[in-house]
Design goal:
This protein has about 130 residues and is mainly alpha-helical. It is about 65% helix and about 0% strand. Helix 1 packs antiparallel against helix 2 and helix 2 runs antiparallel to helix 3. The radius of gyration is 22 Å and the shape is elongated. About 5% of the residues are buried.
């Protein structure tokens, strides 16, 4: 089995951009990062599934299974698309609620987390 190098490079770029955006503080950038990362994983699953143009069923065009594409990859990608859309809708609802309450899109540091981090480093949290 050979893989398309251009598609694998595109998958790597999408994963890198997605991870970079997920690590940002703005919720909208996090959402875009999750969508990019999900699309990269979907492309990776389809790439692993087999060559393009091969029949996913037995007996089509005289092939008896030796050059058959894997139909499970297509089913997994369809399921992943639905899950990604549900996750995107949920994060959009969270972002809207956060914007209504705080009028900002960025995620702030939690004071309790900063206090715990300061205690771990041996610092006094009040100073």
């Amino acid at each position: 089995m050979t893989a398309n190098l251009t598609l694998l490079i595109l998958i790597g770029i999408l994963v890198a951009c997605g991870v970079y955006l997920i690590l940002e503080r703005a919720v909208s950038k996090m959402l875009l990062g999750m969508i990019l990362f999900g699309n990269a994983v979907n492309l990776l699953i389809l790439t692993v599934g087999g060559r393009n143009g091969r029949p996913p069923i037995r007996g089509a065009a005289g092939h008896q299974g030796e050059e058959m594409a894997d139909p499970l990859a297509q089913a997994m990608v369809l399921t992943a698309i639905v899950i990604t859309m549900g996750l995107a809708a949920f994060v959009l609802a969270l972002a809207y609620r956060s914007y209504i309450l705080t009028t900002t899109d960025t995620v702030q540091n939690d004071p309790e987390d900063a206090e715990v981090a300061a205690r771990r480093q041996g610092e006094d949290p009040e100073h």
